[in-house]
Amino acid sequence: MNELCHIRSIPSSCFCSPNSKTSQKNPRQALVKVQANRVSISMHNSEMKVPHVLTVAGSDSGGGAGIQADLKACAARRVYCSTVITAVTAQNTVGVQGVDIVPEEFVAEQLRSVLSDMHVDVVKTGMLPSPGIVKVLCQSLREFPVRALVVDPVMVSTSGDVLSGPSVLAGFREELLPLADIVTPNIKEAAVLLGGVPLRSVSDMRAAAKLIRDMGPRNVLVKGGDLPDSSDSTDVLFDGEEFYELRSSRVNTRNTHGTGCTLASCIAAELAKGSSILEAVRASKRFIETALDYSKDLVIGNGTQGPFDHFFALKNISQNSTRQDKFNPNDLLLYAVTDSRMNRKWGRSILDAVKAAIEGGATIVQLREKDVETQEFLDAAKVCLEVCHSYGVPLIINDRIDVALACDADGVHVGQSDMPAHVARTLLGPEKIVGVSCKTPEQAQQAWIDGADYIGCGGVYPTTTKENNSTVGLDGLKEVCLASKLPVVAIGGIGPSNAHSIMEIDVPNLKGVAVVSALFDRECILTATRNLHSLLSEAAKLKK
Ligand SMILES: Nc1ncnc2c1ncn2[C@@H]1O[C@H](COP(=O)(O)OP(=O)(O)O)[C@@H](O)[C@H]1O
Ligand SMILES: Cc1ncc(COP(=O)(O)O)c(N)n1
Fold this sequence. Notes:
By secondary structure, the protein is α/β, with parallel strands linked by helices. The chain has helices at residues 22-25, 66-76, 104-115, 131-143, 169-176, 187-193, 202-213, 259-273, 277-295, 314-318, 340-346, 350-360, 374-390, 401-407, 421-428, 441-449, 473-483, 499-503, 517-520, 525-543; strands at 30-35, 38-43, 52-60, 80-91, 96-101, 122-125, 148-151, 182-183, 219-222, 232-238, 243-249, 334-337, 364-367, 395-398, 411-414, 433-438, 454-458, 488-491, 510-515.
């Protein structure tokens, strides 16, 4: 076998001449180790450790599920993904036509290759088609421990074809599940693990999660994608103490092939980046919901189980659009806008306020810090961005394009007397979100021309957070919505008592409400956000 030459690329600015003064002291200097024709270069301090997920799963020739879904999910979540293939399937949108199982010795060899060398953080498993493969996997995990193990107990494909038979169950129950940090059965798989009793409701899912946890995994997520007669898509997470019901709206689409594989890979990717289990599951569920929503009209294949687009991009290409999909208008449902005076009044940091709002269900966050020094603003924006992204929530910066650029925020929101929207767009580039405050149909039309992504319309009601701000009322809001080609979020004096009247306005592009005081001028931001979120979700459902 050839000796491998293993060289990591290093920015040229980091190389030092051996004679230069800095070469002895500079901690960023490259270390070159030569061991029997094997060269490895490592960097002090400037080394970049990439979060790494290893997926142990089957190949899906149709590209929608299995290894292919895992690679796409990890890439979309910006995590490196290596692969150990357990089976090759001939599969398309109609079903599974054939399965060729990889011999367990060769699965073991692939595992050894990757785990002995490549600094894997998290292992995610999918299709494990034979008891021997389950065994070699457990042996490898004991020999090369990793930070976390995510087990997706794949048994039957969405099309109803068997991918792993009952012979693997003993290995699952006795060896693999006790090693798992989280196991993610769908309702059919949960039933099989528990001996065949079908799950028909969310309370059945809770009971199943509890029983499966008794088999040894630290957390159980029972997925409800296939729960009959449900308008929501509810998953149940049980961590041994608490149950969390994670709800999203059910996207009406045939393109759900690979959702389970993708969800488990996203969870693994978020864990590899350092998230907690709850954060990882929430961010992953959001990712699936968004991906399904963006891909609901994709047509790939003639069957009933279509794949979806992990990069949310094909839809645009198919419409010949030159603009990139980068912004989901449904994110405007509950738009939390911070206020430093309120945080000061309640003795909270911006970060604590933002965290609580996200945990309560805020779907997008804007930092509007009018009287904070630049350095402080930037520091706060950076930490808030990290938290927002761990939940899959976009972060917008009010007015300060420099701060948005410096922290690589998701976008900016500008008012009529701030930086013009077309200049903001030029400065930020095509990928970022640009929002504009508008009071009139003319301003709404201009925002569209300027390349904005959404408009904020208001103040709808009088408010104390903005001085000298004239109100437009519900009629003015409706007029602006009708004139706007962009999605609209209503702002100004909105809270639980009047959010309903806003959502009842019968215009499809009115997507939600932006709120300051009703969240941040409250003793418990989390409860205030949670209440408003459930009210808005109900109202949004009625709108559909
Ligand atoms: N139509 C849908 N709309 C929204 N979320 C969905 C839909 N179908 C599945 N999901 C979500 O996708 C994830 C995978 O669930 P599920 O489809 O039940 O798994 P599997 O692919 O293993 O059968 C879950 O978070 C589930 O709630
Ligand atoms: C190789 C492989 N692994 C997993 C699945 C499950 O995915 P789904 O439940 O969406 O059919 C699959 N169909 N193929």
